[in-house]
Amino acid sequence: MSEQYQVLESDQSKRIDKLLTEVVEDASRSQIQSWLKDQLVLVNEEAVKSNYKVQEGDRITWSIPEPEPLEIIAENIPIDIVYEDKDVVVVNKPSGMVVHPSAGHHSETLVNALLYHCQDLSGINGVERPGIVHRIDKDTSGLLMVAKNDKAHRSLVEQLQNKSVERKYEAIVHGMIAHEYGTVDAPIGRDPKDRQRMAVVDGGRDAVTHFRVLKHFQDFTLVECTLETGRTHQIRVHMRYINHPLAGDPKYGPRKTWGLNGQALHAKSLGFDHPRTGEWMKFEVEPPEDFTGMITFLENRK
Questions:
Q1: Which of 100, 135, 162 delimits the end of a domain?
Q2: Are 151 and 88 found together in one domain?
Q3: Is residue 101 packed enough to be buried (19+ CB in 10 Å), middle (13-18) or exposed (0-12)?
Q4: Range of the domain at 254
């Protein structure tokens, strides 16, 4: 299937190989240079070299062959299984672990670990994402529900679509939030100025985040965020949108910060109806030590 991109004013004079690394998700610069060499990428219907500098209005089209399916190998990686039965697994994912294999992350993911620890996982999402119903970012810690069969998978997805799954996060954000409660209702889509980021944009997908203040510090605030929807980077984008970006967030926060290898965000609470019995199930896990250590530091700072 062919895809295309219209060059914006903000893209003017960028090398085409650099621009496409921002536009094409999960593609490396070396991959894109190979595509250009093989004339799989055209500008205004003509082949160009990797060092071609784009001009506003250029129409870039590319048609990339489907990659060979990844061979997903079970790996004996320790994981924190909070709950497991014949239908579902609830996992406390550590910060720094990618959820499923993709370009650049072929091993040491949560899926690799789950394949070792669980006999069965649902196949609805194919061999590369077995059992994966929803995701959290690599550097976000906390709870994920995983389906062990297709019936459970369909039930959990339906609950997510119906907004009946309860997902609560703790986050440390920059600045002092003046009010105790709030809701951010703002659509999220790909940032037109930086295709590797998401942003609040007209025409984006509906996104709603509720938050309440848990504790104030000198120039930071600890908040609890409840997701009504589950868009990519939703909490990170919404808190930046209201001028309270997450501490440690390399993509959406201030360039100079401290504390964590990534954003201070932890999926602390997860509730859903069991896909077989209908019983309401709720799980909570405390944030990891580096997160709580930041809180202690902020509490003791003068």
A1: 162
A2: yes
A3: buried
A4: 165-302
From the list 137, 185, 202, 290, the catalytic residue is 137
Q: What 8-state DSSP symbol labels residue 87?
A: S
Question: Would you call 137 a catalytic residue per the annotation?
Answer: yes
C-alpha separations of 238 from 52, 86, 214, 225, 291 in Å? 36, 36, 18, 10, 20
| Residue found by looking up tokens 């589950």 in the block | 230
Q: Smallest Cα–Cα separation from 291: which of 138, 142, 177, 81?
A: 142
Q: Considering 162, 181, 197, which residue would you say is the last residue of a domain?
A: 162
Say how many domains are in the chain: 3
> Token pair 């250009």 is at which residue?
36
Element (H, E) at 290: helix 289-300
How far, in Å, CA of 143 to CA of 128, rounded? 20
Q: Are residues 170 and 91 in the same domain?
A: no
Q: Please indicate, yes or no, whether residues 143 and 81 belong to a single structural domain of this protein.
A: yes
Per-residue pLDDT of the chain (302 residues), as tens digits, is: 578 899 998 889 999 998 888 888 667 788 889 889 989 999 999 999 999 999 999 999 988 766 555 578 889 999 999 999 999 999 999 999 999 877 666 788 999 999 999 878 888 777 768 889 999 999 999 999 999 999 999 999 999 999 999 999 999 999 999 999 999 999 999 888 877 789 999 988 999 999 999 999 999 999 999 999 999 999 999 999 999 999 999 899 986 666 677 899 999 999 999 999 999 999 999 999 999 999 999 999 86
